Amino acid sequence: MRILITNDDGINAPGLEVMQEIASGLAGPSGEVWTVAPAFEQSGVGHCISYTQPMMVSQMATRRYAVQGSPADCVLAGLHDIMKDKRPDLVLSGVNRGNNSAENAVYSGTLGAAMEAALQGVPAIALSQYYGPDNRDLDDQFDASRQHGLTTVQRLLEKGVWTQDDYGIFYNVNFPPVPGDAVKGLRATRQGFRRDMGFGVQPHTSPSGRRFLWITGAPQSQPTSEGSDADMNLKGYISVTPMRADLTAHDILEPLKAIE
């Protein structure tokens, strides 16, 4: 198996090392793992692509490349340039430092890479590690994803639903904020939503008098609806959420016919 791995935390991020372990175990001795990751951190860029400017690609080692661009750019670079002679069988994105459950998924560059791969017709899975008081002080904050990442991906490849339609399925996997031996299992979930929270801004004035805004987040322990991804994560389960790039609100189409 030929596997392309990427992330949004950057090519030197510790989570990418965990992903390398997962991908290497999956590919086996006869397979290949190719890394095409952002040269610098690209968290929160979503499905952004560098449409109006070129991106520099640097080879760091054998089958290892850094791209001055977004995670989706990395997938495009991998599929159409670096691996153009033989496409990968699978794209894995992550392991992200922090969860991409609930509304975080909308902003995630980790998911942006998986989404782009799906749009290009390549099976893709995004993996993220939830942080919380039970794992943030561990020597290995990625303990849950390191212990359970390979078996989770294997189970998805064996038993997951993979479609060949225009907006193919990709998967959003989030590992709970607990040590690996405290993970309770795997759950298929819908995307949740944390109410009464979200991103905002905090203004600052620089010593030169210029005004800047920092984006601010919110606590990630806010409960979501029963059975959703973040709910299951906070209860100690790995969440697996099937997703599509199709943004159509299909449930509204029939009522909307009233405007015709």
Topology (SSEs and partners):
Elements: E1 2-6, H1 14-27, E2 32-38, E3 57-61, E4 64-67, H2 71-82, E5 90-97, H3 104-107, H4 109-119, E6 124-129, H5 143-159, E7 170-175, E8 185-188, E9 200-205, E10 211-216, H6 229-234, E11 237-243, H7 250-256
Parallel strand pairs: 1-2, 1-5, 2-4, 5-6, 6-7, 8-11
Antiparallel strand pairs: 3-4, 7-11, 9-10
Helix pairs in contact: 1-5, 2-4
Strand content: 15-25%
The total beta strand count reads 11
Total count of domains:
1
Radius of gyration: 19 Å
Short descriptors:
260 residues, Stationary-phase Survival Protein Sure Homolog, Chain: A, nine-stranded mixed beta sheet, 11 strands, globular
Could you describe the 3D structure shown?
The protein is an alpha/beta fold and 260 residues long. The protein has a single domain (2-259), classed as Stationary-phase Survival Protein Sure Homolog, Chain: A, CATH 3.40.1210. 27% of the residues lie in helices and 25% in strands. The chain is built from seven helices and eleven strands. It has helices spanning 14-27, 71-82, 104-107, 109-119, 143-159, 229-234, 250-256; strands at residues 2-6, 32-38, 57-61, 64-67, 90-97, 124-129, 170-175, 185-188, 200-205, 211-216, 237-243. A nine-stranded mixed β-sheet has the order 3-4-2-1-5-6-7-11-8, sandwiched between helices. Strands 9-10 form a two-stranded antiparallel sheet. Strand 3 and strand 4 form a beta hairpin. The longest helix has 17 residues, at 143-159. It is globular, with a radius of gyration of 19 Å. It starts with a strand and ends with a helix. The model has no long low-confidence stretch (mean pLDDT 96). Nucleotidase that shows phosphatase activity on nucleoside 5'-monophosphates. One of its GO terms (molecular function) is 3'-nucleotidase activity. This is 5'-nucleotidase SurE. Keywords: Cytoplasm, Hydrolase, Metal-binding, Nucleotide-binding. Its EC number is 3.1.3.5.
